[in-house]
Amino acid sequence: MRPTQACAQLTVIIPAFNEEGSIGRTLRHVEGAKGYLQVRSDVAVEVIMVDNGSSDTTARVAAAAGARVVHESERNIARARNVGARAAHGQILVFLDADTILLEGLLWRVVEEMADPRCLGGAADTEYKPASQVIHAYLQLWRWLGKLTKMAQGAAQFCRREVFEQLGGYDETLFMGEDVDFHWRLRRLAKKRGLRAVLLNDVRVIPSCRRFDQWPLWRTLIWTNPLVILAFRRRKQFWDGWYSSPPRENRREGTR
Fold first, then answer.
1. 9-129+151-208 maps to which CATH number?
2. Residue in 56, 86, 55, 87 with CA at minimum distance from that of residue 69
3. Beta bridge partners of 198
4. How does strand 44-51 pair with strand 9-16?
5. How many CB atoms lie under 10 A from the CB of residue 232?
6. 229-255 pLDDT, tens per residue?
7. CB within 8 A of 116, min separation 6: which ones?
8. DSSP letters spanning 136-150
9. Where are the domains of the chain?
10. Exposed/middle/buried for 220, CB within 10 Å: 0-12, 13-18, 19+?
11. pTM flag (> 0.85)
């Protein structure tokens, strides 16, 4: 199916903090996905990287890779996502994590789904590839439980601009789990209106596992547990160790 002109433009929004070691690779994959899309449609794509107060060369690397860089100094990923949405020109918004690999067909599948006016948005499934088989099994367990509870992470989420505005964007009082909260609200709105919110299983994204590969098992089990996230998601200080210090391999791209 060829998407219609109703999908006039799409904006990819990438919030980033000290991601000089990952953002270039992520943007190369975005360019690959743009090329795949534009061979099949006339949908214009813009890419925005929101520099969320980085102290490294993240902004410079992103600009050199062709992304439009906007800045938000207040350290809050929900706020960074919202700032990117306000700067976007597209009628379809795609939110992507800065350390995530996407398949080249992802943007095409988003446009294909959004060509249906009944579709409000959705997310892509995730495929984690940690070094530890124990962590892999643990993340797979939460992935399948997440599917049962209609939970979708923000590694790759998308929606119509007007729907984003109706939902009030991402909740800036949440310092963890803002992506899951947004998807749940999107699904509730779709259900209320008799419309659709989708989960793309055929074009999974691959989030970085650098934290899980470097952390002790106990730390991963605590900080990725949805019950812990639910209990402490509004306490900024609790998540300082998650966001404040990028793993060592993230300092320079190409050091992996």
1. 3.90.550.10
2. 87
3. 122
4. parallel
5. 17
6. 778 788 777 777 666 655 554 443 332
7. 196
8. HHHHHHHHHHHHHTT
9. 9-129+151-208
10. buried
11. yes
